Amino acid sequence: MTMAIRIHEHGGPEKMVWEDIAVATPGPGEALVEHRAVGLNYIDIYMRTGLYPLTLPAVLGMEGAGVVIAVGEGVENVKPGARVAYAAQPVGAYAQSRLIPADRLVTLPDDISDPVAAAMMLQGLTAQYLLRRTYRVKPGDTVLIHAAAGGVGLIVCQWAKHLGARVIGTVGSDEKAEIARQHGCDFPIVYTRENFTNRVREITGGAGVPVVYDSIGKDTFMGSLDCLAPMGVMVTFGNASGPVEPINPGLLGQKGSLFLTRPSLFTYTAKRDDLAAMAAELFEVVRGGQVKIEVNQTYPLKQAAQAHSDLEARKTTGSTVLLP
Question: Is the pTM of this model over 0.85?
């Protein structure tokens, strides 16, 4: 048995229950991991509320770091005692220990701590595919990242700056603007008092940007399209304000032959070789100091409901870690 946060029905944070669950012996291709830290991500809220429905009852959580306790038949990439991390399906990270497909695990370097690892895998791998694969940022590019003071946002700001880009970011307060600025955001825009579309056009001399990275969704989608240069790339990768409403594809032509994509980390990491290469690149920039992972909040795992409430209320900055 192990303690875990589980939901029996979709809904608010109050639906999250701290309870005993059974953990089986690893089967073929599986590993048993004892968590040292668990990551908190907005996708956990989508799953709790039912925006991304789960088969219930379900243990929430997509990301964790810990130690391999046992492995099943055929597992060769990790051994018992190895320090590992992951950001992967199936859900189940909000637990003291869990079974997981072993090919989803990556071995941690000694100089990356468990809390940092738990904070960086999902958000850091997301930043990697956004900047290096969905739209490959080049020196001299100007990029727009929404929620620039959030977990993914702070990583994108630093990494894009390292790649030679000018970074524009939207934030909700002056405090968050300063945090984003300290992490490589050249032009923080406080969207609560500034029209971000107009500001982006001012900053770029009317040209627009080649790419927008938008995790907000419904509230920012149309304004984001209007920030793009002709043949720009609109990357909508989250729904913090709700899902984007259906659009007529002809609108993309009217606004400058734009490209629209809705990527998913789990597509980009579906192949083991891709996952390993992406993690290696993420570890390289973190260990080299080009990207600093900010664990700005920690909560006991059993208080995950409070962590969800604070994340939804936009009270958090950087990354949040749950400690079993």
Answer: yes
Neighbours of 172 (CB within 10 A): 15
CA 275/CA 260 separation, integer angstroms: 24
Adjacent-strand bridge partners of 188: 169
Cis, peptide link before residue 90, omega less than 30° from 0: yes
Rg (CA), the chain: 20
End-to-end Cα distance, the chain: 14
The verdict on residue 254 lying in a domain is: yes
Is 127 domain-assigned?
no
Sign of CA dihedral 91, 97, 101, 102: positive
Nearest-angstrom CA–CA distance, 9 and 17: 10
Mean pLDDT of 34-41: 96
> Domain check: are 112 and 39 in the same one?
yes
Residue range 278-299, pLDDT digits in tens? 999 999 999 999 999 989 899 9
Q: Which domain holds residue 159?
A: 139-262
How crowded is residue 284: how many other Cβ atoms within 10 Å of its Cβ? Answer: 12
What are the pLDDT digits (tens) for 46-96?
A: 899 998 899 999 999 999 999 999 999 999 999 999 999 999 889 999 999
What pLDDT, on a 0 to 100 scale, did the predictor assign at position 202? 97
Residue that terminates a domain, selected from 225, 242, 262? 262
Q: Give phi and psi for 118, each to the nearest 5.
A: -65, -25
Residue with tokens 């406080």: 190
Q: What strands, in cross-sheet order, belong to the sheet with 228-236?
A: 187-190, 166-171, 142-145, 209-214, 228-236, 259-261
* Percentage of the chain exceeding pLDDT 90: 89
- Number of domains the chain contains: 2
Neighbours of 88 (CB within 10 A): 25
Q: What is the CATH number of the domain that holds 194?
A: 3.40.50.720
pLDDT digits (tens, 9 = 90+) for 132-149: 999 999 999 999 999 999
